[in-house]
Amino acid sequence: MDAMDARLLRALQADGRITNQALAAQCGLSPAACFDRVKRLRASGVITGYTTLLDPAKLGRALMIFVEVLLDRTSDDVFAAFAAHVERLPEVLECHMVAGGFDYLLKVRVADMAAYRVFLGSTLVDLPGIRETRTYAVLEEVKATTQLPI
């Protein structure tokens, strides 16, 4: 990866719908060279996909919650069972196994606190291996970005 690849990636992170023509002009490349570089970045796995960002509040998912999950045992079978179940929960946007005082950190989106209470009581606590959860409701989203510093 060189400086031109980094320039292309910064531009694509800012606007994933930019046309090849506009991207080439913005980065000082010919359209053919730009297309070839982006194609190579996709083929090598640097670019993993494209997506559309949505406003959660306008789609009934205004409340963001972070949940610490402590499992009752830390064994491969418990980790695998927990992960398999979490992958099927649409409310869980992210799930990270972490080192420290708990095992997983979940990022959850729901409509409001009442919806979270239902999710917690009827879904989350029934997942295999959970010993304890701690809930942190987000009061204000100070910074949220999908752009990596390049």
General description of the model:
Strand 2 (92-97) and strand 3 form a beta hairpin. This protein has five helices and four strands; from the N terminus they run αααβαββαβ. The protein starts with a helix and ends in a 13-residue tail after the last strand. Helix 1 (3-14) crosses helix 2. Strands 2-3-1-4 form a four-stranded antiparallel β-sheet. The chain folds into two domains: 3-43, Orthogonal Bundle (Arc Repressor Mutant, subunit A); 57-137, 2-Layer Sandwich (Alpha-Beta Plaits), CATH 3.30.70. The chain is an alpha+beta fold and 150 residues long.
Cα shape? elongated
**How many domains make up the 3D coordinates?**
2
Strand content: 15-25%
Strand order of the largest sheet: 2-3-1-4
Number of strands: 4
Distance between the termini: 11 Å
Low-confidence stretches: none
CATH top-level class of the largest domain: Alpha Beta
The helix/strand series, from N terminus to C terminus, equals HHHEHEEHE
Report the mean per-residue pLDDT as an integer: 97
Helix and strand composition category: alpha+beta
Radius of gyration: 20 Å
As for the CATH topology of the largest domain, it is Alpha-Beta Plaits
Helical residue percent band:
25-40%
- The CATH architecture term of the largest domain is 2-Layer Sandwich
Major beta sheet summary: 4 strands, antiparallel
Number of helices: 5
Specify the CATH homologous superfamily of the largest domain. Answer: Lrp/AsnC effector binding domain/regulation of amino acid metabolism (RAM) domain
Pfam family, one: HTH_24
Keywords: Activator, DNA-binding, Transcription, Transcription regulation
Domain HTH asnC-type: 1-62
GO molecular function, one term: sequence-specific DNA binding
